[in-house]
Specification:
This protein has about 350 residues and is an alpha/beta fold. The protein has a domain at about 15-190 and about 230-255: Rossmann fold. The chain is about 35% helix and about 15% strand. Helix 1 (about 25-35) links the parallel strand 1 (about 15-20) and strand 2. It is globular and about 55 Å long. It binds nicotinamide-adenine-dinucleotide (NAD). Nicotinamide-adenine-dinucleotide binds next to helix 1, strand 2, helix 4 and strand 5. Nicotinamide-adenine-dinucleotide binds near residues 22 and 49.
Length: about 350
Amino acid sequence: MYNSPFHSIDISSNSFLVTGGAGFIGSNIVEYLLKYNAKKVVVLDNLSTGFEENIKPFLSLSNFTFINGDICNSDDCHKACAGVDFVFHEAALGSVPRSIKNPIATHNVNATGFLNMLIAARDANVKRVVYASSSSVYGDSKTLPKVENNIGKQLSPYAVSKMTNELYGEIFAKTYNMEIIGLRYFNIFGPRQNPQGEYAAAIPLFINALLNNQSPVINGDGEQTRDFTFVSNAVQANIKAMFASTINTKGEVFNIAVGERVSLNQLITVLKKIIGTDIQQTHNAERTGDVRDSLADISKATTAFNYIPEVKIEEGLGLTLSWFSEKYGARTVEKELINKEKK
Ligand SMILES: NC(=O)c1ccc[n+]([C@@H]2O[C@H](COP(=O)([O-])OP(=O)(O)OC[C@H]3O[C@@H](n4cnc5c(N)ncnc54)[C@H](O)[C@@H]3O)[C@@H](O)[C@H]2O)c1
């Protein structure tokens, strides 16, 4: 998937930790680092929502280490950070509904686990931490496009946990003189995103339904809009933010998106066109805690570290669909995937 590098330095002398590296976005970052011959890539993941299968091709590589551990455990975090130059922090419990159902679990992993990781990174003298924040921090702000310094009130425990990351990120950067950068992802999609379970994201759910000849189910009228972003753009942002030399690293946050928005109804129309089906969608009630519209202003990331989203939505959906079809085959996604969503 990565035909030309997003970095210009030689990374063969650098060691990296990717927390949540067995998950969707994390495993795509791992794949990139290994493709470009990183000296060492360590993954810390407890496989709660990630899959060992996502890192299976890397397990036999001598420069890859998998630690089956928990960011809620300070010892695991210290062990994972030992000898590491750079940390990509992706481990978290995603999903707004999950956080509404179990706010303590979300807080423990996303807030306390994040704090554990910052302390471990500080103690290991890591050079830079780039972590995953979320567009959910914009909350009830109606302003479009979303600009980094203009946020509203958060609408869910998940959003609060990500806001907490940003507050701690800035405080740690300033108090302990660390380099910390937050990336506010806007609806990332692509290969290895889990299509299963109560808390699955919209695009893999829709793809799974359509490939299985079932009606995709939309929460609400489908006119809500999102700035859907293909995962290679998120990988690009992580790599460029990690190596940018002129960037403000004192807890700055950056929108990571495409800068275009589509409604869920439009999204399904595109998917149906690519698949060649005319199955109609059905609608459920709107979900509590969801924002109505989302669109990012990405100019801050473009200016700071030359972030330029290369893959737009239609191409990204095509790549995602071929990955899902190739991996699971039509009509078999549901049967072959183990539902990891136990809570
Ligand atoms: N996918 C999106 O659209 C999106 C949008 C905004 C923010 N984010 C953030 O990006 C990051 C990656 O999300 P993703 O979509 O790849 O989700 P994911 O669930 O696929 O990946 C998260 C990974 O973290 C691991 N993990 C969870 N709890 C852990 C713990 N206590 N200790 C160690 N590992 C743990 C999981 O097993 C999983 O592999 C998360 O921080 C998420 O909140 C994602």
